Amino acid sequence: MLKVYLSGEIHTDWREQIIEGAKGLDVEFHSPVTNHAASDDCGVNILGAEPNKYWHDHKGAMVNAIRTRKGIADADVVVVRFGEKYRQWNAAFDAGFAAALGKSLIVLQQPDHDHALKEVDAAALAMAREPSEVVQILRYVLTGDLPA
Q1: Which of 30, 35, 39, 88 lies closest to 62 in space, CA to CA?
Q2: Domain limits of the chain?
Q3: Which architecture characterizes domain 2-32+72-143 according to CATH?
Q4: Which InterPro entries does this one have (predicted)?
Q5: Which of 22, 53, 77, 78 has the fewest beta carbons closer than 10 A?
């Protein structure tokens, strides 16, 4: 069983594409909470309201970090997706954390991020452009089969 943590942007269906494409492979997927409102507000909903937006966000980040750290630590492979619309500083942090733990890292990004992510890409074992390429990597790792 290959454990894969899917980190990064939450505004597109890239996770679903990878999970669907990997059906039939011996893979178990995990990810952060992808409900944006729940992720943003988990800290104040659980630990109490904060009038200052900084502390509101800080509480949420700390609660989410428990799930993220566990998911990355338990993973064999970490896939980090950098989306087109937003700059995902948290995704860059996850990539660095995964690299520091010696995890096999796959970065999923568009060409316009190549320069900004050059250090992240240098720490990765693969840089893919499309979710289907991530699926092909996982298939190859598990079976040795190349795409047809």
Answers
A1: 39
A2: 2-32+72-143
A3: 3-Layer(aba) Sandwich (3.40)
A4: YtoQ_family_protein
A5: 53
